[in-house]
UniProtKB/TrEMBL annotation:
Domain Protein YjdM C-terminal: residue ranges: 45-112
Protein name: Protein YjdM
Keywords for this protein: Hydrolase
Domain Protein YjdM N-terminal: residue ranges: 4-32
Length: 112
């Protein structure tokens, strides 16, 4: 075994290094070595501007977000306090005043 990580896209074990990139010859997926280091250190969740988020932070919504299954909208500038980070596609668990418990994507918020 070469000690290189498997491809995150197809799980191939035949990856190789090319400068600062890892490359999979089977699916042609390329990824940065720093992404592997971050994944090994634990999941790092960042806001839309690249600032690292942590449990208990306050964030501000940067885009109008429609609430699925209702006619409510979370407006730009809505401040959300005391967030909790979870894994998955929607990586922020929170409560929004007037709406209730929600899950948000970190790409639509900035750290307050």
């Amino acid at each position: 075994m070469s000690g290189l990580p498997q491809c995150p896209k197809c799980n191939s074990e035949y990856t190789y290094e090319d400068g600062a990139l890892y490359i999979c010859p089977e699916c042609s997926h390329e990824w940065d070595q720093t992404q592997v280091a971050e994944a090994e250190a634990g999941s790092v969740i960042k806001d839309a501007y690249g600032t690292q988020l942590a449990d208990g932070d306050s964030v501000t919504v940067i885009k109008d977000l429609k609430v699925k299954g209702s006619s409510l909208v979370v407006k730009v500038g809505t401040k959300v306090k005391n967030i909790r980070l979870v894994g998955g596609d929607h990586d922020i668990d929170c409560k929004i005043d007037g709406i209730g418990a929600m899950k948000l994507k970190s790409e639509f918020v900035k750290k307050a």
